[in-house]
Structures are given as structure tokens and as C-alpha cells.
């Protein structure tokens, strides 16, 4: 008995080694001309060949090693594919144990700026980490917003960035508007609009984006599946083209730059008398504003999460999920599917609009370039990778994807002359690596990181519904 | 006058449905008696499901009138008057009348209160059994709007309504003996349980007319007997009229008060189960023989 298993495993090892060696050899052969020889400009201006066999060897070893690893783990003949969750920790996060983990998660998020300041040794040096936190949280919020549309209602929206753009431009145009500023200058003080514009415009941006969601959704939501995806994609592009070409309103491709900064509920983050630092007896530091921005986006993201949790437990949220499961059955139960889809679309759009206003006040500059299809694709990737419908999954995947792409910038060792040379910019390859990561995760966990669905109500025990039973929706 | 003609809950008049050149239902008229179990039978492809889809608003009939009444049936002249106005519904002295062919499918369910199940089960398989039954009560729970503030803020008034909905769901789960599986995904249930759950889900929407498309298909004899009991209790205890398509003759003969037989899109017989069972045209349709051979067969089977 023992001998049999030993023989089997040694046979497995031998096969794995053979396969790994073969793959490494093929890779090396292929890459010798492709990577190993590099034509560069010599000192005299003529082209000279540079040999980079070290790099070829690294690639070959990587391929061989990866295949060996796969043989010994994922591809083992006996393990049924996809039977057991491969990330038990993540699966647990989504389950009842997640209820206990959530306060911890939230506490870490609240303390993050403090940790960043302590960890990097001062307010100034912490800037990178705070900004990274803001950046990631923006995508967490966008992911959660789109999750309502794609994950809950099962409507594939490839143009989500349009609502982000509507929110950003709504805020940028209103906050930078001279007539509005003058109007309030006459009634509420010269600085009123400059200080309060964000807080007044934030809800407006969300509402306007929701309105756009309704306007777009009305004709579009009759379409299903691929058609819906294509039309939403087109809508995203149309919004961008309108922003570029309606120069009178949007200043075209040059963008809008005169956006007032955020204030601490009316108190400016300025160095002088009456500024935030002065009022609270602190030493002035421009980082105060960034830390405040961090808490604003944290609050906005939390609002999105709480609203989604609440909506899922309401009839409308259950109708969204039912719609994703079976639209025809919904209609047989009297659910107005058009109206229900419209609410999902516009509520998702509203959170996109909030995020857009935040984006505008943080960067203090908006231009159509920030709202390309790439953004929609990244947000959708976050949702799909996280596991459609799962909030924890979406948050984790936003952290992994956005944080991971950002970390690529820091891989300075790749600039070693022996590897890629100092001209190599790893961040240029972000999208490539991002794509590889997506393919890998989808191969491993086709339903996303958290594939199970938590019931919204229960009699005795809140059970998880396995991802195999949950449908993805088709329109 | 036949019992189902005295106070029909649904009057189907000259219903036709064409798909391109194919006439799936042709000039079919029948009555569904209030408080009765009415069965529609016929060979495969006879147009039974198509009739159901017309009644429940999933197809717009090519021609015909489908008049459903709450309370009591309107007189023919009242009905004609409503038809001429072009409106889809009217309030009458006794209740309401709905011309189903003029209503969109979700209105047929929510306003006219016609519930249905499907030939191939359509449960929300990724949602739990209890969630399925709550989705069915959507219309009752959203009277104050899809985004009612009371629900959004989880106010006590909302919690009371939700508790009532859960209570109704529990009652139904007990009736179909699935209370112990309330928190399991619907897709995990065995086939027979899924059939019963789909009926309970339709009933949670409190319909006045329940349309069941082959509810006994794929059930074993024991489950089939339990289904008969359930359907009779729906007729008697819930005051819901039942219209069902069925192949299983034991179900049809055992529980229906009235049987309508379709063949090639036409109605070939209409009467009590006994009348239909002995109708030579029905025997011919089921045995697939020419009409002149029917007498010989009748003699042979001894009817
Ligand atoms: N949506 C449709 N499009 C075209 N033909 C249809 C459609 N639905 C049903 N039919 C046709 O109508 C006829 C009756 O079908 P159906 O009502 O499903 O029969 P039954 O339920 O009695 O078995 C069949 O010939 C079928 O092919
Ligand atoms: Mg059928």
C-alpha cells in the first residue's frame, strides 16, 4: 500500500520534473532570438547587438519553476478541480466568521493614517501611503457601486465610468462657476462657495449621476446580455466624447483646473489665521488635508457598503437578485423588471457620481482623459475578480489589483543593468501583468475570490449559497 | 348551464395565437370556473403552454379575449362594453374585470392576480427557500414604493410587515413540508420539492387564479398523491381557482372538476372528467387513430 503511493508520487515527481525541464528548454529556445539578442544604438550611432542571455535564463527558470509548482499543487491528478475552496481564509471572511472580522477590518481602515504616519516616520513622508490609501479606497467604492449593478442585478455595465465622469464634472462645473460663487458672495459671504462647494455639490453630483442612470437606463434596459454590454460601453465613450467636444461647457481636452480644494466643513486647510491647523492648535502641514480626504473617502465607501447591505435586505434588493437568477419568474410574480433594473442602474450610478465628485476635489482637475474605457474595465475587473455580489471580495480584489499595480512601480531591482537596464519602467507593464493576474485568478477561481452568496434572511441559520447555484444574470 | 359557466373566473373567448405561419392555438374558447380545478390536457405540441402564456401575459395573443373577474363574473353586455372602451381593466359592482390580453405580464400577476408555475421549473436557485417565498411577496411589501424610507431605515413599521411576510412564508413551508429546509438554497432541493416550492412561491403572491404547467411531471406516485392533496387544499382552503396542464391522467381524473382537451391548437372536448374520458375524439387524439377506427377501439377497451 505504502509502496504503491510512494511509487505513484515518485512517478508524479518524475513526470513533473520532465515536463518542467521541457517547458524551460522550449522557453529558452524561443526567447534566445526574441529576448536574448537586443539591438541598441552603439556609441557611434550604429546599431549593435546586445546579448541578454541572463534574462533568458531567468525567464526559462521561471517558466520551469511555475510549471513544476502547478504540477505539484493545482494539477495533481487526485485533487478534484474546484472542489475545495482554495482560499479558505477568504471563504471564511465571507461567512459568519466574517461578521467578527468586519469590526477589525474597519478598525484597521480607521487607524490606517496613524499607522502610515508612525510607520513612515512623520506626516510628510507618510504622504505616499495616505495617497495610496485614498486611491485604493476610491476603487473600493467604485467597485461596490458597480457591484450593485453587475453583482446584484446581473446587468453587465461596461460604461460605469460615465457616471464617475458625470459626478466629477458636475462638481467641477458647479464649484468653479463664477455666477454661483458671486450669488453666494452677496448672501452668505465671499468665501462661502469656495469653502462649502464640495459639501453642497456632493449630493448633487450623486443625484445628477443617478438621473443620468435613469435617462440612459430607460431605453437601454430593454436590451439583454451582450447588447446591454455594448450599448453601455458606447454610452461611456459618448460621454467622454461629449466632454472633449463641448468645449464651451467643459473646456474640452484641456480640462477644468479651477476646482476649489476641500474644506473641513467650512474651515480651510490653510496656513494662515482661521485655517484648520491654526484653529485646532496644530502646526500647519499640507498633509492634514490629505488625511482628511482619506477619511472622507472612507466615509463615502462605508456609506456605499452600508447602503448595499441594507438594500439587499429590502424587497428591491431581493428583486435585484431574483432578476439576476430568473427574469421570467420575476415577471410571473408581478415584479416590474424594467423599473427594478432602473433602480439598480441609477443607485449604482449615484455612488459612481459621489466617487466622481470626490475624485474632482482630490485632484482638483478634471479632464476627459481620466474617464476612458480603461477605468470601466478596471472597475469591472475588480467586481468580477472579487466575486460578483460579494462586498468583502470586491474590497479585497480592489486592494490587490490597485495596490498591486501601484507596487509594481516600486520594483526597482528590475532596473538592474544585468536584467532590463535602467531604461526599463516596470509600471509600463502594469497592464500586461494585470492581465496575466486576471487570467490566473479566473482559471483558479472562475467565480471570483469570494464565490458564495450569503442569504439575506434566515429562520435558523444563515447559510452560504455555493457559487455553483448562483447565476450571473444575462441582461 | 354547466357549473363552470355560471360564474367563470376566467372567460377565454376565441383565442388564437400564430407564430409566423404556425398556428399554435386556433379559435379556442372555454371557461374556468371560480373555485374549481380546471385541467387542460392534450398531446404534446397541442398548444397548452401557449394558452397559458397568453393567459399570463407572456405572449400577446393574435386574437381573442381573456376576461378575468374578481368577485363575480360580469354579464356579457358589461364585458362587451369594457372591451369597446379599449381599457384593460374596470371596476364592477361585484369586484373587478381585467382583460388579460391588454396587460403586460407583471400586471397580470400583480393587478389581475394570476399566479403561475413553469413546465421547466424556474426557481431562484441561488437564493434560499425562504428568500424565494419573500420575493414572491414583493408586490405586497413594496406598496409604499421600491425605496420606501421605512424599509431603508429599518423602522418598526417595516419590520412588522416583513415579519408578517416571513410568517406567511413559514405557513406555506409547513404546508409543503419544507420548513426544515427554509435556509437551504432552492437549487439544492430534490426535484419533487422544487415543484412544490414553485407552487408555494406562486401562492405566496396570493393569486385568485393559479396556473400550473404540468405540476406532476417527473413526480413519483407518492409525490403525485401529495400534490393532489395540495391542489385540493389550495382550491378549498385558499379559495384560489386552479387551472392546470397535465399529462398524468390520475391527477387529471382525480382532482379536476372540469377538463378542456386541445389537439393541434383546437379545442376538441370540454366537460367533466367522465364525459371527456369517454369522448371518442379524445380517445382518438390520445391513441392516435383515425376517427372511424374509434368505435372499434371503444368496443375493444370496453367504454
Ligand atoms: N415562442 C414560440 N415560437 C414559435 N413556435 C412556438 C412558440 N411557442 C410554442 N410554439 C409552437 O406552438 C406549438 C404548441 O406548443 P406548446 O404550446 O408548447 O404545446 P404543449 O404545451 O401543448 O406541448 C408547437 O408546435 C410549438 O412548436
Ligand atoms: Mg407544454
Quaternary form: heterodimer
Give the helix proportion of chain B (percent range).
40-55%
Give the terminus-to-terminus CA distance of chain B: 26 Å
Count interface residues per chain for the largest interface.
A-B, 40 and 47 residues
**Biggest beta sheet attributes of chain A:** 2 strands, antiparallel
Mean of all residue-level pLDDT scores of chain A: 85
Number of DSSP-assigned strands of chain A: 4
Strand content of chain B: 15-25%
Helix count of chain B, per DSSP?
A: 14
Which cofactor or ligand species appear? adenosine-5'-diphosphate, magnesium ion
Pfam families (chain B): ABC_tran (PF00005), BCA_ABC_TP_C (PF12399)
InterPro entries (chain B): AAA+_ATPase, ABC_AA/LPS_Transport, ABC_transporter-like_ATP-bd, BCA_ABC_TP_C, P-loop_NTPase
GO cellular component, one term (chain B): plasma membrane
Protein name (chain B): Amino acid/amide ABC transporter ATP-binding protein 1 (HAAT family)
Would you kindly provide a brief summary of this structure?
The complex is a heterodimer of chains A (475) and B (303). Chain A is an all-alpha fold and 475 residues long.
Amino acid at each position: 500500500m505504502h509502496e504503491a503511493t510512494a511509487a505513484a508520487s515518485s512517478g508524479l515527481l518524475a513526470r513533473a520534473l520532465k515536463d518542467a525541464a521541457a517547458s524551460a528548454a522550449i522557453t529558452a529556445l524561443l526567447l534566445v532570438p526574441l529576448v536574448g539578442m537586443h539591438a541598441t544604438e552603439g556609441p557611434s550611432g550604429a546599431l549593435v547587438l546586445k546579448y541578454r542571455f541572463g534574462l533568458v535564463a531567468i525567464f526559462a527558470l521561471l517558466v520551469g519553476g511555475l510549471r513544476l509548482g502547478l504540477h505539484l499543487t493545482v494539477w495533481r491528478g487526485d485533487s478534484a478541480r474546484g472542489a475545495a475552496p482554495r482560499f479558505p481564509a477568504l471563504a471564511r471572511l465571507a461567512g459568519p466568521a466574517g461578521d467578527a472580522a468586519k469590526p477589525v477590518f474597519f478598525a484597521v481602515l480607521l487607524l490606517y493614517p496613524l499607522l502610515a504616519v508612525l510607520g513612515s516616520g512623520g506626516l510628510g513622508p507618510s504622504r505616499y501611503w495616505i495617497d495610496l490609501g485614498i486611491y485604493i479606497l476610491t476603487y473600493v467604492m467604485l467597485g461596490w457601486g458597480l457591484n450593485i449593478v453587475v453583482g446584484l442585478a446581473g446587468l453587465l455595465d461596461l460604461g460605469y465610468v460615465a457616471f464617475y465622469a458625470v459626478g466629477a464634472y458636475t462638481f467641477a462645473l458647479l464649484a468653479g462657476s463664477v455666477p454661483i460663487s458671486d450669488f453666494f458672495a452677496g448672501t452668505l459671504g465671499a468665501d462661502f462657495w469656495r469653502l462649502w462647494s464640495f459639501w453642497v455639490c456632493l449630493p448633487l453630483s450623486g443625484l445628477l449621476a443617478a438621473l443620468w442612470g435613469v435617462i440612459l437606463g430607460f431605453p437601454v434596459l430593454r436590451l439583454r446580455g451582450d447588447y446591454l454590454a455594448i450599448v453601455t460601453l458606447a454610452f461611456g465613450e459618448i460621454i467622454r466624447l461629449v466632454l472633449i467636444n463641448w468645449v464651451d461647457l467643459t473646456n474640452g481636452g484641456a480640462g477644468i483646473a479651477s476646482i476649489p480644494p476641500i474644506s473641513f466643513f467650512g474651515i480651510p486647510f490653510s496656513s494662515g489665521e482661521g485655517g484648520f491647523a491654526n484653529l485646532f492648535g496644530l502646526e500647519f502641514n499640507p498633509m492634514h488635508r490629505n488625511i482628511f480626504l482619506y477619511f472622507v473617502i472612507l466615509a463615502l465607501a462605508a456609506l456605499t457598503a452600508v447602503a448595499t447591505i441594507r438594500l439587499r435586505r429590502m424587497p428591491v434588493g431581493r428583486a435585484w437578485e431574483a432578476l439576476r437568477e430568473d427574469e421570467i419568474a420575476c415577471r410571473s410574480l408581478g415584479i416590474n423588471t424594467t423599473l427594478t433594473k432602473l433602480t439598480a442602474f441609477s443607485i449604482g450610478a449615484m455612488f459612481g457620481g459621489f466617487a466622481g465628485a470626490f475624485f474632482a476635489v482630490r485632484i482638483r482637475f478634471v479632464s476627459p482623459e481620466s474617464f476612458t474605457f480603461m477605468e470601466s474595465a478596471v472597475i469591472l475587473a475588480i467586481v468580477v475578480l472579487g466575486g460578483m455580489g460579494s462586498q468583502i471580495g470586491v474590497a479585497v480584489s480592489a486592494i490587490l489589483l490597485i495596490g498591486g499595480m501601484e507596487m509594481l512601480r516600486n520594483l526597482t531591482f528590475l532596473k538592474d543593468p544585468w536584467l532590463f537596464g535602467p531604461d526599463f519602467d516596470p509600471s509600463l507593464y502594469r497592464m500586461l501583468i494585470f492581465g496575466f493576474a486576471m487570467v490566473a485568478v479566473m482559471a483558479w477561481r472562475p467565480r471570483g475570490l469570494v464565490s458564495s452568496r450569503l442569504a439575506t434572511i434566515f429562520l435558523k441559520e444563515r447559510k452560504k449559497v455555493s457559487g455553483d447555484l448562483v447565476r450571473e444574470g444575462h441582461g | 348551464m354547466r357549473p363552470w359557466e355560471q360564474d367563470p373566473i376566467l372567460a377565454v373567448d376565441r383565442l388564437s395565437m400564430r407564430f409566423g405561419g404556425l398556428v399554435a392555438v386556433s379559435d379556442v374558447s372555454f371557461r374556468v370556473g371560480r373555485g374549481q380545478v380546471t385541467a387542460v390536457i392534450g398531446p404534446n405540441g397541442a398548444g397548452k403552454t401557449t394558452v397559458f402564456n397568453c393567459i399570463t401575459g407572456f405572449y400577446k395573443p393574435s386574437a381573442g379575449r381573456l376576461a378575468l373577474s374578481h368577485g363575480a363574473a360580469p354579464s356579457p353586455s358589461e364585458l362587451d362594453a369594457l372591451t369597446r372602451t379599449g381599457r384593460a381593466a374596470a371596476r364592477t359592482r361585484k369586484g373587478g374585470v381585467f382583460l388579460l390580453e391588454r396587460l403586460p405580464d407583471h400586471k397580470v400577476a400583480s393587478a389581475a392576480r394570476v399566479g403561475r408555475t413553469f413546465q421547466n421549473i424556474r426557481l431562484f436557485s441561488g437564493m434560499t427557500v425562504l428568500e424565494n417565498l419573500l420575493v414572491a411577496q414583493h408586490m405586497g411589501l413594496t406598496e409604499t414604493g421600491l425605496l420606501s424610507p421605512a424599509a431603508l431605515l429599518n423602522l418598526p413599521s417595516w419590520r412588522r410587515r416583513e415579519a408578517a411576510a416571513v410568517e406567511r412564508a413559514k405557513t406555506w413551508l409547513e404546508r409543503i413540508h419544507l420548513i426544515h429546509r427554509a435556509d437551504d438554497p432552492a437549487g439544492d432541493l430534490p426535484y419533487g420539492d422544487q415543484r412544490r416550492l414553485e407552487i408555494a412561491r406562486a401562492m405566496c403572491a396570493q393569486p385568485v387564479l393559479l396556473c400550473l404547467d404540468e405540476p406532476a411531471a417527473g413526480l413519483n406516485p407518492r409525490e403525485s398523491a401529495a400534490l393532489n392533496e395540495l391542489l385540493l387544499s389550495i382550491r378549498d382552503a385558499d379559495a384560489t381557482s386552479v387551472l392546470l396542464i397535465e399529462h398524468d391522467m390520475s391527477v387529471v381524473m382525480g382532482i379536476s372538476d372540469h377538463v378542456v382537451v386541445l389537439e393541434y391548437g383546437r379545442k376538441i372536448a370540454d366537460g367533466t372528467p367522465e364525459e371527456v374520458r369517454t369522448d371518442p375524439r379524445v380517445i382518438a387524439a390520445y391513441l392516435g387513430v383515425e376517427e372511424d377506427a374509434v368505435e372499434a377501439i371503444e368496443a375493444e377497451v370496453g367504454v
